[in-house]
Amino acid sequence: MKLSEEYPLVVENLSFRYHSRPELAIQDVSFQLRRGELLLVAGASGCGKTTLARCINGLIPRSYKGEIAGHVLINGQDTAGLTLARISQAVGTVLQDPERQILGTRVMSEVAFGLENLNLTREEIILRVNQALEYLGISELRERETFHLSGGEKQKVALAGVLAMRPSILVLDEPLASLDPASALETLQLVRRMADEGMTIMMVEHRVEDVLKINPDRAMFMMDGKVHYLGSPEGLATVVDYREVKLPAHMIIERVAAESLALEPQELRGAVDRTTETTPIVQFKDVTFEYESGVDVLHGINLTIRRGDVIAVLGPN
Predict the structure, then answer these.
(1) So what's the pLDDT on residue 266?
(2) Which pTM does this prediction carry?
């Protein structure tokens, strides 16, 4: 087997600095991904994850200008000598906000957009569109207007448009950011399925806890533009700051327990002491709401918010 067949993606000593910034966004990044491997890339905002994704899918340095050093090899070819069109046929990208990459007014035309730019025949385009929609289980959306899709549906349509191009590598840049827990789990299961079927996948994601549920093959942790860890997912617990990256609960509990033992008694008391205040800042009393179109949304909301409260608002899309 050729090296390029075993490792569809090879990154060698990659560094990049945006023209608008004095510091390097990523520095001396090197790794290889095997065919069918799923890599989780984690790190706090601004650590260089998205910059790395842009270097791999060719947007850097073609759309985002700056100084680049090192090499990115896609199926054995250095991307420096390839056009963006050629790279996009091998590397598919799905962004955290699907609306940023949805251009078509209807699902059918959106999924067909990339194929039309390849100048394929109408028959081939229709075949690939139908296959992508069926693979993702969204054939019923074929004639729907993209504007009226939910966040989870838009994410799947964006993914269908990428899969229709039949890339060998998939780059996912925080695909769970706008999804509720149920939609996120469904998306993750699709990602695991695609990797098991041979697609090489790099998933950039803050929600590490969720991604670990589908057993990524390896995990990378980035900080200040550098790779600080690359290895088994279990090793993340020793290097990741749980305040910045969402780890599984048992990992966080172990870390917090270890840190608490290191605190002096006075420090520990100060950490939990808090002044309480009972005067409400905001109150909802039997609040209802419906849009002008007649869509009824809120029903009898009752809620009191006091100073110092931390309130999580949960629910499906």
Answers:
(1) 56
(2) 0.79
